[in-house]
Structure prediction request, 571 residues.
Amino acid sequence: MSEEKIDEEKISEEKTGREKIRMDRFQYLAEVLDPSMDDYLFIYDLENDLYCISPSALERFPIPGCRFSNMAEACGSFVYPADVKLLREDLARIFHNEKSDHDLDYRWIDREGNPVWINCRGQVIRNDQGKPQFLLGCINEIGQQQRADNKSGAMRETSLQRELERYRGERLNGYILRIGIDNFKEINENRGIDYGDMILRRTAQCIEEMLEDGQKFYRIVSDEFIVLCASEGRGDSEAVQLYKKIRAAIDYFIADNHYEVFYTISAGVLDLSKVKKQTYANLMKLSEFALNEAKAGGKNQYYIYELSDYRVFQYRRRLINTLRQAVNNQCEGFEAYFQPIVDIGKGRLIGAETLLRFHTEELGRIPPTEFIPLLEETGLIIPVGRWVLEQALEACHRIQETIPDFRVSVNVSYIQVLKSNVLGVILDLIKTYQLKPGSLMIELTESGFLESNANFIKFCDELKENGILLALDDFGTGYSNFHYLYNLNPDTIKIDRSFTLEALSNPQEFNLLRHMVAMTHSINLKLCIEGIETDQELEKISEMDPDYIQGFVFGKPCPYDIFVKEHVLAG
Ligand code: C2E
Ligand code: MG
Ligand code: MG
Prediction:
């Protein structure tokens, strides 16, 4: 070996030794500073492809170690796949000496597999020959909220998280009071963002002024605040008192401001001693639930968390998921039942109302009064309603081979009318099953809202124009009024069982119903009475001369095959 070569090796060994010392020093510094920092320090030895980072980064991200080599391969484990190319390109430019700094926003993946936005910023340190030797800098999570909020003067959610983490492992006592400004979006929309900011600031001030020892407050999301009191012996009654005091302070501010703006606040109270799982995520979830309950109860009020209410909420959510899965699974679990409707004058079966049923192995049978509002709330009534229409019209087509003037009634929800082209669906299906339009009766449930809605009236008009029959369901409950009859111009009105029951037990109600029947006939409408269960009831109600009867006395709702066997073929 030549002397020159030996020299070169010696120099290179010395250099690597020096670099190793530098890396060791850096690592020591990063370890010492780590508890005092939210960010992560890093050094990247570009010549030896060796990377070193603050130890706390390993707790959060699946990084191979505090020190690792072969960056190109290792970054695959913690850099978001779509951002790897961006990172490699930037590093390549540094390697090729095309730039002297690194300032990149991109994503890493945390230990739960979630993408986390980071900003990585660093400076290139060059060696004596001017070649890039180290990249030294800092990584911070830009998605992390700021810890304090200058708009409201409150601390931010991250500070609350830190505060709660201080108690990790201990059982927490005390309470969380989660306060939300009611209709804040409207304040912003009507009065502008600056005004909204002023309301936020004043609300925060009102809260802060009412705080006593041991109570800390934070701004959570745009219009929500949390007061945390983590002290033994202080519970929901103190939280309620605090809420009332804050509300009074806000009322005072509103009056002082000459009612230039009027707004209210709601609050959810979480007594920490009642919460078993006291993780940060669970406390946030439960306090959010409590605030939502207060808002759902009509706003400008408080609600105290109860496990039993939360279970109901969870069951509802579970039911919604189950319904959604069923819909995605070709409506598996749904069934169309049919209940006979009898023409009293002719003394025979004239049609059937299609009634939806739902069951799962897990949850058993769920009553329609429970699952239909959920289908409406989630919009799932649109696909399910189409499915019911199809079942009904197919059944009608088949039954008409035995009873040619048989007709089928289908309940249609206001959501289907207002948010989908249900008329188009109806007309298509009528064509598919080659039915006369008069073979289908659409049942609509009344409500004050529907009457005043122009689209709704248009839908009723279009049904009529196309020869489809219309029934007003549940007449005699809720908002019925006679304008309704005029505006929607139905063919039939159906009297709800609750009204029928009253009429059967109370002579005055009976009289009222009798007059309603007469009035209905005088304007050429047909009347169907629902909910007749016994022969005696049938006899009594028949005195009024209704047109149709639907009730258990003639048959309960049942599946198609049973309906055909018991009512179509037997009749
Ligand atoms: P509705 O349209 O007024 O249906 C009549 C309800 O009265 C049915 O309840 C029926 O089973 C019940 N009923 C009929 N005769 C008697 C009787 O003699 N005694 C008693 N105790 N009850 C009787 P169901 O099937 O539980 O349905 C409840 C409501 O759910 C329906 O009231 C309707 O508003 C809604 N619904 C059912 N199926 C559908 C559907 O496919 N779509 C929509 N949008 N709503 C539906
Ligand atoms: Mg009905
Ligand atoms: Mg009804």
